[in-house]
């Protein structure tokens, strides 16, 4: 399956490097109560396990897709955009694909071309209504950037579920170990958001102190922790994050075994499912500008085949049950 974004192309082709806050409208309200009575992130994640009577009733939730306005002058790409997709991947197209593919809910992961300008994300949320939520992107090391997070969340109550941080490009790393990145994490936490981290394994150590300090803030680990962009030893650091009960692993951006480093992803996914368990795993992907209902469904089926070692009930959790509860869709 071809990569559909610059981000996924990096994941599929890049060489191996050198050797709770609780999002969603329902969960945000719960967070206010938890602040007073001390209920942890573990409790909310555990509640996903018993949310549905059987797998046939579990909704399907795609937790990772990007929308782009393309050449739409109303929603220009940011001056600092690291890439600029020409093809539009609109929320209208998304809703059509969701309907045809049997996807009940989705999360628009605000992409880097817009940087901290969220106008197109807000457009997507208006079009998507109750079926769509989103993540935000603010920069700890840019003066004034994080200050915009509260306004975005307040304008879109219950629809912003996480703040995302990237750590994969050496020239654009977050300021690890600084008060600035701690302020970003705390701001998201205070607003009832999760933290969503997208990184190469060699940068995992920069996040670990924050995962520990903000132990009640849910941390979503994107793209399997990008196992093919690190050595097995480096990625094992990410696998061991399963010991932190506030971490959630995302099965997304499946690497192409036909491309370098030609490693089979199946053992990685098995290791991650054994470490995190279905109650702390979610899936995402398959939507892009060229997607059809058929191709979108096939991506989900591909994920399902990679989870064949799980029971039907546990596969249903990964494909939607866990995310539906965690992000307040049900």
Automatic annotation (TrEMBL):
Q: Which InterPro entries match?
A: Amidohydro-rel, Aro_Compnd_Degr_Hydrolases, Metal_Hydrolase
> Which key words are in the record?
Hydrolase
Does the entry feature the keyword Hydrolase, yes or no?
Answer: yes
Q: Which domain of life is it from?
A: Bacteria
Gene3D superfamilies with a match to the protein in the record = Metal-dependent hydrolases
Q: What is this protein called?
A: Putative metal-dependent hydrolase of the TIM-barrel fold protein
Domain spans labelled Amidohydrolase-related: 61-329
Molecular function terms from GO: hydrolase activity
A Pfam family: Amidohydro_2
Tell me yes or no: is Membrane among this UniProt entry's keywords.
Answer: no
């Amino acid at each position: 399956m071809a990569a559909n974004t610059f981000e996924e192309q990096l994941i599929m082709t890049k060489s191996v490097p050198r050797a709770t806050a609780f999002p969603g409208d329902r969960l945000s309200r719960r967070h206010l109560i938890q602040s007073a009575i001390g209920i942890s992130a573990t409790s909310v994640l555990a509640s996903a396990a018993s949310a549905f009577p059987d797998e046939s009733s579990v909704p399907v939730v795609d937790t990772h897709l990007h929308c782009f306005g393309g050449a739409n002058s109303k929603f220009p790409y940011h001056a600092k955009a690291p890439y600029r997709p020409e093809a539009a991947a609109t929320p209208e197209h998304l809703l059509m694909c969701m309907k045809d593919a049997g996807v009940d809910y989705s999360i628009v992961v605000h992409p880097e071309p817009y940087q901290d300008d969220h106008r197109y994300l807000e457009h997507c949320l208006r079009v998507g209504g109750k079926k769509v939520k989103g993540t935000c992107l603010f920069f700890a090391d840019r003066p004034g950037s994080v200050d915009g997070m509260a306004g975005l969340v307040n304008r879109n109550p219950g629809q912003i579920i996480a703040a995302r941080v990237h750590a994969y490009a050496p020239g654009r790393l977050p300021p690890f170990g600084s008060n600035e990145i701690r302020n970003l994490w705390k701001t998201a936490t205070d607003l009832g958001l999760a933290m969503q981290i997208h990184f190469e394994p060699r940068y995992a150590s920069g996040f670990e102190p924050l995962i520990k300090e903000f132990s009640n803030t849910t941390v979503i680990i994107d793209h399997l922790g990008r196992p093919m962009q690190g050595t097995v030893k480096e990625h094992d650091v990410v696998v061991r994050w399963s010991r932190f009960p506030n971490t959630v692993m995302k099965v997304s951006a499946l690497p192409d075994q036909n491309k370098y480093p030609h490693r089979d992803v199946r053992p990685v996914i098995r290791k991650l499912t054994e470490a995190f368990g279905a109650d702390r795993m979610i899936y995402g992907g398959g939507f892009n500008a060229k997607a059809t209902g058929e191709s979108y469904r096939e991506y989900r089926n591909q994920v399902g085949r990679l989870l064949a070692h799980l029971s039907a009930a546990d596969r249903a959790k990964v494909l939607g049950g866990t995310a539906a509860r965690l992000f307040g869709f049900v």
